[in-house]
Each structure stands twice: as structure tokens, then as C-alpha cells.
């Protein structure tokens, strides 16, 4: 089995109204050291070991379904689950 952690964030050039709202709320709570907030998504996948390139499979999953690559960037980490 593979455990995959996918991190999806808005591209830097895309405005983040949700992040701006959180930043404003933090400032109202007197956390004035916060200069910027960007909101993203975190997704965990568990994939069975099969023939083929796991890295390619994860890229396809991200680009076809999980991330809108026009406005979002993604990164991922793949960990092989070693039975004990």
C-alpha cells in the first residue's frame, strides 16, 4: 500500500478571498503579526500496490480530479506502507 498526502494551494497570482477573511478575523482578535493567509486543501489517499508508475498515477489523479490546474498548484508525498 502507498499512503499519499496531497497539498493543493491557489497559485500566487490568484486572489484568495477566504484567506483575506481569515486574516481580517485574526487581526480583529489582535493577532496583528499575521501578514498573509492563504487557504488550501489537504487530501490523503491510500493506493494499492499495482504494476505501473505510482508517481504518474498520483499526478494524473491530481490533474484530472483533485486540483484545478488553471488556478491551483499541487504537491504530494508518497510513503510506502511497510508491513510489520
Describe the overall structure.
The protein has 84 residues and is α+β, with helices and mostly antiparallel strands. It has one domain: Mth169, Chain: A. The protein contains two helices and three strands. The protein is elongated and about 50 Å long. Part of the FGAM synthase complex composed of 1 PurL, 1 PurQ and 2 PurS subunits. GO terms for molecular function: phosphoribosylformylglycinamidine synthase activity.
Keywords summarizing the entry:
single chain; 84 residues; alpha+beta; Mth169, Chain: A; 3-stranded antiparallel β-sheet; 2 helices; 30% helix; elongated; PurS; PurS-like_sf; nucleotide-binding
Quick summary:
It is found in: Cytoplasm. The chain has one domain: 2-Layer Sandwich (Mth169, Chain: A). It is 30% helix and 31% strand.
Task: Write the H/E string, N to C.
Answer: EHEHE
Overall form = elongated
Q: Into which percentage range does the β-strand content fall?
A: 25-35%
Largest sheet: 3 strands, antiparallel
CATH topology: Mth169, Chain: A
Trace the largest sheet across and list its strands.
2-1-3
Per CATH, the superfamily is: Phosphoribosylformylglycinamidine synthase subunit PurS
Q: What is the radius of gyration?
A: 17 Å
Secondary-structure class: alpha+beta
The CATH class assignment is Alpha Beta
Q: What is the architecture at the second tier of CATH?
A: 2-Layer Sandwich
Strand count: 3
Helix content: 25-40%
> Overall mean pLDDT score?
95
Amino-to-carboxy terminus distance: 13 Å
Number of helices: 2
Number of domains: 1
Spans where pLDDT lies below 50 across 5 or more residues: none
Amino acid at each position: 500500500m502507498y499512503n499519499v498526502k496531497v497539498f493543493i494551494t491557489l497559485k500566487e497570482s490568484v486572489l484568495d478571498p477566504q484567506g483575506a477573511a481569515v486574516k481580517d478575523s485574526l487581526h480583529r482578535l489582535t493577532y496583528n503579526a499575521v501578514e498573509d493567509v492563504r487557504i488550501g486543501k489537504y487530501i490523503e489517499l491510500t493506493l494499492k500496490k499495482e504494476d505501473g508508475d505510482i508517481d504518474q498515477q498520483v499526478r494524473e489523479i491530481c490533474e484530472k480530479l483533485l486540483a484545478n490546474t488553471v488556478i491551483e498548484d499541487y504537491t504530494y508525498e508518497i510513503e510506502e506502507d511497510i508491513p510489520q
